[in-house]
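Deliverable D5.2: sample structural annotation.
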Amino acid sequence: MCSGHSPEVPMLGEADWEGVPLTHLLKAVKPRWLSKHIAFQSADGYTTSLPIAEANSAYVIHTMNGKPLPAEHGFPVRVLVPGLAGYKQPKWVTHITLREFPMEGLWERRGERTDGRMGPIATIQAGKQVYTVGETVMLSGVAYAGTEAIEKVVVSINGAPPTHVRFTGGVPMRTTSWNTTWQPSISGVYNIEVTVTSRPGDIEASTSIIVEVIA
């Protein structure tokens, strides 16, 4: 997921990846005790780095959805670190080096978090923007929380007490789909908000849309 993801500009993808654990490569080179960061350089000049502790969950990816990694997704290899934003998962990697200090990348210099951590996200959509009284409004969306599981999805209409809605998935490192229906009894403009919750610490994310109901 890109750190610039939003309901208006979705930048979230999902795939099945295969690769080599980064720890396997580190064992082969036997890092010195001063090596505390792993730096990556890409064919297009992109750079970023990770604390060496992150290597336990990182992979050097060569296969996507059962096929060799496509050029647009980083051929010949890219880095995958579950739970981090895309700017910490470089494509077209040509060099991996061990350093005492971190290597500041393009997006870190522009103000992004140096650790690349991201919270959960939620999206919501309706079939259309205008409905009639009594018509069934179909609401759906996606939730995602990186390495954490989605535990709860609730919808609130015009600030009313939220109601739980069903969802599928909810497992870490996968998108979670949810859907529900609503039948407005009076005309008006409605603000429909969805809130998703993940562990640990009951971390929440919310977003909303506006729907008009006419008589």
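Annotation notes: The chain has a mean pLDDT of 91. The helical segments are 22-29, 106-109.
The annotation will be released with the project's public dataset once the embargo ends.
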